[in-house]
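Protocol step 4 of 6: structure prediction from sequence.
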Amino acid sequence: MPRKIIIDTDPGQDDAVAILLALASPELEVISLTAVAGNVPLPLTQWNARQIVELSGKSTPVYAGCDAPLKRKLVTAEHVHGKTGLDGIPLPAPSHPLQSQHAVDHIIDTLRAHPPGTITLCPLGPLTNIATAFQRAPDIIPRVAEIVLMGGGCFEGGNITPAAEFNIYVDPEAADIIFRSGVPLVVMPLDVTHKALTSRAWIEAMRALGTPVGQAVASWTDFFERFDTAKYGSEGAPLHDPCVIAYLINPALFTGRHINVEIETASPLTLGMTVADWWRVTDREPNAMFMGGVDRDGFYRLLTERLGRL
């Protein structure tokens, strides 16, 4: 039985690769994509999500959700992802429709309609949609099987401020709701994603697939790799969001610790920090499987094999 998932996303080139990986993998049944404001504003994230589904040749429904964080002004990341969020290759305007229902209502209805413990939520962006659903319908919280998310950092610090990773920083109050919810959490922080760097050989292998998906993945990666190599002085760019999907397909690719993670929501200096008790120095109850290592070669083998199917 494939695992039923909802991908909550703010595409983003790395979101796009994650979505394609999920849609190419028979282990996963992608019920829907729910778009949230994050890397770019909501009109672009829902548009990009529809373009990605269309590129994949699938018909997964796309819902638009929250256009701003719970309590804050939206911070976006065009400086990383370009003005569309998916800069790198022009894609045609999507004929894939946007569903009329709000993403938050769709998340609530889906969790109520399925047996408890059968739906996994996979947030790849700010946690606004999921937190809003939890606030509006607390009865769904115990029905969630697991939340596997990309966000945060410990030893790697932050990528939008010295202390905070972008997804958590954009809506720290939403992240706080999720991390206090009691739902089993698996976190893919910068500590893992910065070890999952692209290589020139991999990008060229994607291009050599000769498919529309291969072309798109190569050009997206080329685009945002320029930003990351300049910023970190690294060989390639981290493919953050595909780590979430790769974990669902093959958890053995990742290693981590079950620890307590709290979200800073008050400090102007460390707002959005994931305070990860990696060394277990507090007596706070563990609430998250916080990943620290990835089998990079295995990760890229999986990506290559699956993306080649589309």
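Step 5 (inspection) to follow. The radius of gyration is 18 Å.
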